[in-house]
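Troubleshooting log. The previous run stalled partway through. Resubmitting the same two chains, unchanged.
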Amino acid sequence: MSERLQVNPIACDGSGLCFELIPELVTPDDWGYPIVEPRPIPEELRTEVRRAVSACPKLALLIARADD
Amino acid sequence: MPGAPRLGCGVLVVLPESACPVRETALILRFLAAETADQCGPCVLGLPAMAKAMAELYAGGGSRTRDRLLRWSGQLQGRGACRHPDTAVSLVRSLLDVFEDEVATHDRGVCTGGNTRAIVPLPGGRSSQEWR
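Second attempt completed without errors. Output:
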């Protein structure tokens, strides 16, 4: 079971908070919208990721769980 | 398999030798940018930027424009909820890959299309006012 960060691109309005809070997993494209790393969320970033998910102004981030 | 053809949006057009693939691609990109559903940022902002860069490539923008198109292709791949940007990305990538020579002649100010009409039929409208 692994967890991956996902962005809902329709909800996202490019506030930029996610790549400020978790630059390890999210980088901005040339227009200021987030590009999310598809790799599983590393254990040491779980707290930070959860914080970013709840702090996103549009609640456009989500943690997807998958069996693998 | 790298370089394998993909059907993309499911439209197949055979270009005669007299057509210019750079011009055709630039016009399709302009159409795709206008057809955005206005939902996702990367599509709303990224596709017009790609379309503009493709028109610059047509005008002889050279390697800087080519590099920009490749960078943006990497950034836009898989980003739209409906995958609309992927169509533009695969089109641009295959142009730069397969029609390298034709792109290079544009860098020297020559269009292989000559005095022909664009081949790919596109519903028109907005583009004619763009220069204003």
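Takeaways: Chain B is about 55% helix and 0% strand. The two ends of chain B are 44 Å apart (CA to CA).
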